[in-house]
Amino acid sequence: MATTPQKPSLIGMSMPELSTALDPWTLPSYRAEQIYKWVHHHQVSDFADMSNLPKTLRSELSEAFELHTLKPAFRAVSKDGTIKYLWELTDGRQIESVFIPEATRTTICISSQVGCALGCDFCATAKMGFLRNLTAGEIVEQVIRVQQDTGQKITNVVLMGMGEPFLNYPRVIQACHILCDPAGLAISAKKITISTVGVVPRIRQYADEEQPFSLAISLHAPTQELRRSIMPIADKFDLQMLMDSAHHYTGGSNRRRITFEYVLLKGVNDSPTEAKQLLKLLAPLRCKLNLIPYNDTGIGFIRPEDNNIQRFLKPLEQAPFTVTVRKNRGNDIAAACGQLFVEVAEDSKARSMKA
Ligand code: SF4
Questions:
Q1: pLDDT at 139
Q2: Is 172 exposed, middle or buried (0-12, 13-18, 19+ CB in 10 A)?
Q3: Which mean pLDDT values do the consecutive 10-residue runs of the chain (355 residues) have?
Q4: How far does residue 168's CA lie from ligand 1's centre (Å)?
Q5: Taking the CB of residue 210, how many other CB atoms lie within 10 A of it?
Q6: What stretch of H or E contains 319?
């Protein structure tokens, strides 16, 4: 795999990191603040646009640092306006982001790792295995680049693309602080959602640190036995441990609500029995349930028919929490997590075999 030697990127540097990186210039401290704002708030693509810096400094900075490190590798636009991006990193590896425009908000789903080690049965990313963690800069840059490409201000961010964010905890948290910083991307912290499949120690840490971002837990099964059969992480952190950590989070001093994600897989977890078990499990918690009819990926699972989804919803009508069913977006462009990468990789594999 080709590795391009790379100057460090200024995107994703916290203020203290940026001040240290600027040490050789012995600049007054306000310069670091100005540069941080040009990079993250104004999101300039060229050092020449940093108009309140001396020209010599602008050109020296452009010799020492990069502003962009992600190279567009593929872009697909769905009929419904969803846009899927495949980015090439400086080491030649690839990650995905998905832009989802809606009437009242614009959401981006971003990646936190290249590939993933957790091997959930229904996930296309799992087929890649784990390759590496993303840097804070690579996480933040996905939002900046999509904002630049679409010309639309992103209002909501979900870390639900490739990877398990809580296995890349420090970089993900640093990136999220830059995303919500008023001098950074200025996205409301509550509208940034970190989605985990249940790395219990990090859920507890996140609660204890009172991080201001929203939390989603990908539950996908209401019993330990079923969860274990589709999500290997349940061997390490069982359902009881996961629910205890969820209670710890919602019972904390800031009394936050958790969103539970539940992907509906035909014949696996979509019966009324499972709906009743789910109701019992979640009823005592401050939470919201988001049902996600599976996005077919060709890896052995299928989406339940609409009448099965309605049958699943019936017992949940009495739930003391909100239940939503996510609209499938971008079906025509392989918008499920990891799916585009896998399809593009298989397509090029097929093409090279043919050649
Ligand atoms: S669903 Fe998430 S945690 Fe599970 S394998 Fe896919 S990327 Fe990893």
A1: 98
A2: buried
A3: 72 97 95 98 97 97 96 95 96 96 96 96 91 98 98 97 97 98 98 97 96 97 98 97 97 85 96 98 96 86 95 97 87 60 48 36
A4: 13
A5: 10
A6: none
Whether 337 is catalytic is yes
Q: Which pLDDT score is estimated for 348?
A: 46
Which residue, among 194, 277, 284, 192, has the nearest Cα to 244 in the 3D structure? Answer: 284
Residue nearest to atom 3 of ligand 1 (CA): 164
Residues 6 or more apart in contact with residue 234 via CB below 8 angstroms:
198, 221, 224, 227, 228, 242
CB of residue 124 inside a 6 A radius of ligand 1: no
Give me the catalytic one of 96, 141, 274, 343. Answer: 96
Domains and CATH numbers, the chain: 15-64 (1.10.150.530), 71-354 (3.20.20.70)
Residue 66 falls in the annotated catalytic set: no
Q: From the candidates 109, 116, 123, 337, which is the catalytic residue? A: 337
- 90 Cβ inside 6 Å of ligand 1: no
Separation of 201 CA from ligand 1 center, angstroms?
17
* Ligand 1 atom index nearest CA of 123: 6
Is the pTM for the entire model greater than 0.85?
Answer: yes
